[in-house]
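Justification of computing resources. Each target in the renewal requires a structure prediction run like the one illustrated here; the chain below, 291 residues long, is used simply to show the kind of job we budget for.
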Amino acid sequence: MGSLSGIFIALVVTLGVSALFIFGVFDADDGLPAIENSSDNIAESASQSTIDHNSVAESPNARAVVFALDMSGSRNDALSVSAKDRAQELTNDLTAWSPGNTLPFPDSIADVRTRSDFQKATTTTAIKKLSSNDYFGIVFFAERSEAWSDTLVQATPMNVAKVVRTIEKYAIGESTLGHKTNLEGAFGTIFRLIETGHHGEEQERSHADVYIFMDGYVSAGRHAVDWESSSNHAALNLQYGENMHTLVNEIASRATKLQAIVNTVGIGEGCDTHTLRQLAQKSGGRYYDYR
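Resulting structure tokens:
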């Protein structure tokens, strides 16, 4: 899944095998579930009492960005040398990065060996480059999804340090989110964060940038296909394509309502590049190919 074309995105997908999840109430307009996931299992729980909410007065130019990281079972697969080479060829030596721009080149590319390493390095590099006036959220997803915080948090030095430690621990630890990839579930959590905004207040910024990482195909959720249900793979492939078309339209519709720009990042061989590319195009974002 995926590859590296300028570098950054928003993040997430796959773990678990036999688990069924009902994601709550569906939006009457776009069909996406309003997911209420607990973040209790995240490596370093970001309890509201330990998040820095008051260090910097909000600027009218404050931006919001949400990163979604794929925690599926394939996240520890090796990242190809060609993907790392492409990243170096396509990425300028950026001294600053802001939401909406090309993803920054990871500070620690020499240590990037797996898809998980790449997500960790890219995301932490970007977060460290945010202005203290900006707001961010982190979502980890596979079959289920969890947010690091119930609201968007300000990119103060304390909050940045806390989330970087969490991402580093989560990247090397065992995920409890399952082994499959539920793209719909990930966006349910992403959109809930954007709707909630910061401090539990409604989002007031002009728009939010989403960067989502994925290294495979959608294998869980309402739009997934049971590949073992039939030997007619041509029919199943057709059904998968139709389902992804529906899912992309639902996500893009919801993103438009929330003024969210969705950037997608495909990592590794076997990534569903078509779905990620279509999602970015229909949501006003960019697709980054790091296969």
